[in-house]
Amino acid sequence: MWFRRRSGSAPPDTGVPRTALAFALPFRPVAKLWLAALAVLVALLVGQPAAGSTAARTDVTIPMDDGVSIAATLYTPDGAAPAGGWPTVVFLHGLAGNRQQMNTLVEGYGFTNGPYAILTFDARGHGQSGGLVGIDGPREVSDIRALHAWLAARPEISDTKIGAWGISYGGGGIFNSLVAGVPWAAVVAVQTWTDLYTALMPQGLVKSGVVVGFSTSIPADRRDPSLDAVLAQAFAGNAAAVRAWAAERSSIAKLGSVTTPVFMAQGRRDFAFGIDQGTRAFNALKGPKALYVGLHGHAPSTFPAADTGFLMTRARAWFDCHLRTTGCDGIQRSVYVAPENFTGQIARRGTLPPVSPTFVSFPGVTTFAKSGKLVRTSAPLRKDIEIYGAPTVQTSIAASGGWSRLVAVLTARLPGSGKEILVSGGGVPTKPGAQKVTIQLINQATFVPRGSRLTLTLASSSTAQSAANLLYLDLPMPASARARVGTATLKLPGLRTPVTK
Description:
By secondary structure, the protein is of the alpha/beta class. The protein is 24% helix and 28% strand. The protein has helices at residues 18-24, 30-45, 99-108, 138-152, 169-179, 196-200, 208-216, 225-235, 239-247, 276-284, 308-324, and strands spanning 56-63, 69-76, 86-92, 117-121, 157-167, 187-190, 262-267, 289-294, 334-337, 348-349, 355-362, 366-369, 374-377, 385-389, 392-400, 405-413, 420-429, 433-440, 444-448, 453-459, 482-485, 488-495. A ten-stranded mixed β-sheet has the order 1-2-4-3-5-6-7-8-9-10, with helices on both faces. Strands 11, 12, 15, 18, 21 and 22 form a six-stranded antiparallel β-sheet that branches.
């Protein structure tokens, strides 16, 4: 489920059509689900710092060049600093988060045991920091650069061994600062983006539920006014305007020149930032690199997850190797894919896993209005398929009366239990008249066992499949809108060697 119900909050003015807000705002945004999941981690770990931790903890305020103050917490190990200063890791939180969450994380997973200094901070427009949220734009990158310089200037900190760990919004900030020349010695980026446009407006159709969820997690008085303008452009379908805004907040075009050691962790099932955000970066990067595809992520996944301990151990090993030059054996150019039934063991390989396609046909011709839908179900699958990548749906559509988009949702009903799982979804804008379309679904990993039946739903929104599926909202369309859809062909990329048993 993408959102949960909330109460007592007035909708901010986002520039999104009122019908979209009326539908989406009674529910808790996607970012809030991540915060709620992280609260579980806080409850488990708060008051229980890692055994043996003697780090001194100091809250500080660091001024930026525009007069805004950034609130931060600095941990320094006990005792005299080594020659050249302590290696240091900066932790960056997610959208609508704060440094207290990162403090719990670093204390709970042993990062304050030494031999690292640790800096956490409230990003601009968050927590106790001043300023407005601009979604990891140039202003936020300047803040990150200033924080790095502030650390490097301190006598107890090594100015050449400063790394960064960031999640979601924080991970985007790491990538954007990296390509802007901030001299990180090593980085770890978790469930984030490298191309914001393809993440949130793939194929020119905005993931409206995800975008509304993220935008409403930022209080109106802490949002940069430019966000409202770009939201309006996204919901109006102005792909060019959104692409230009997103390009300024994306790193993918410049990652080919990066030689900094980069460890990326994407979720198997993250409907905000798919696996492709990491695999494209993995292919582009020229330096030491690793990709971990695990159980964490935005909805329908969570952070923390069953494999978070393993992930944090791998992150620590990455910093140990590249900030302390110890324990580097076997971690360079690594790809890890966690099974859905994670029990502590994960196979590692040196390249991205190979896939083979499976094709499923959904024959027929169906005509429906805006409130209608096409629903077709396959025969039982003859073999297990561990989907890995972006499924595609090819079909023909004759659009009339103002029909403007086609959304696909793929579900699977499992044998035995009869449980239905949401596999993926996607959508494309449509033009008047007859046309062939290819809908690329979200890039993810889902194990579908033999005997399952796949169901394909085609409509004007994902809510046609389920009222709880707010990936693509039920946005306005003329009452006269009609769509006539023909045979659909589904292409499923599957791991040649499944990791889930």
